[in-house]
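Fill in residues.
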């Protein structure tokens, strides 16, 4: 299971590298379907990669979770302001997120209850051994940081205080930038 988990995390990066190589060569793909380009493939890879990463880090509960205490809620409120949330474009944070503090090296991805995509508490995985490894922690942190960057690159989700869309996605990007610091601190503490 650990190799599949790591492969899912890096899948989007491989699509991006393939896209960059194709674009740099300026070559058309042999047998390319009309309207389907390297840009379209890159965008699809982007969303599949994002789904895999967020399923693990915000829904699965495959590790210990970050306590939703007053300090975290205050930080999240500051993030909502920073991303330019407005009445026309409010931040819609997920319901009952299971933000990972420590990341287990593997587990059983079967749901433990009837899944409801609107409530992340229902998307918890059956779990597995509570083994912490450098590899699983490092790959998760690397993927979260890469995604935090992608949420803000090229205004993919608009610009704060300018566009009337994307505040929720920019908020998720801010959260993904904050989580790795907490995860690294927790990992180092567990190793001490």
């Amino acid at each position: 299971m650990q190799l599949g988990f790591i492969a899912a995390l890096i899948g989007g990066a491989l699509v991006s590298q393939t896209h960059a190589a194709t674009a740099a060569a300026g070559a058309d793909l042999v047998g390319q379907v009309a309207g389907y380009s390297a840009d379209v493939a890159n965008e699809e890879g982007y969303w599949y990669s994002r789904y895999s990463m967020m399923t693990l880090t915000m829904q699965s509960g495959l590790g210990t979770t970050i306590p939703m205490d007053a300090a975290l809620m205050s930080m999240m409120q500051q993030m909502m302001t920073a991303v330019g949330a407005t009445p026309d474009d409010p931040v819609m944070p997920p319901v009952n997120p299971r933000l990972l503090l420590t990341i287990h090296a593997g587990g059983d991805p079967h749901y433990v209850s009837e899944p409801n995509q609107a409530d992340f508490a229902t998307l918890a995985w059956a779990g597995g051994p509570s083994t912490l490894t450098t590899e699983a922690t490092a790959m998760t942190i690397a993927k979260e940081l890469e995604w935090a960057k992608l949420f803000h690159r090229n205004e993919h989700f608009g610009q704060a205080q300018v566009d009337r869309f994307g505040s929720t996605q920019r908020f998720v990007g801010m959260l993904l930038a904050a989580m790795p610091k907490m995860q690294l601190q927790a990992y180092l503490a567990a190793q001490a």
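The first helix runs from residue 2 to 25.
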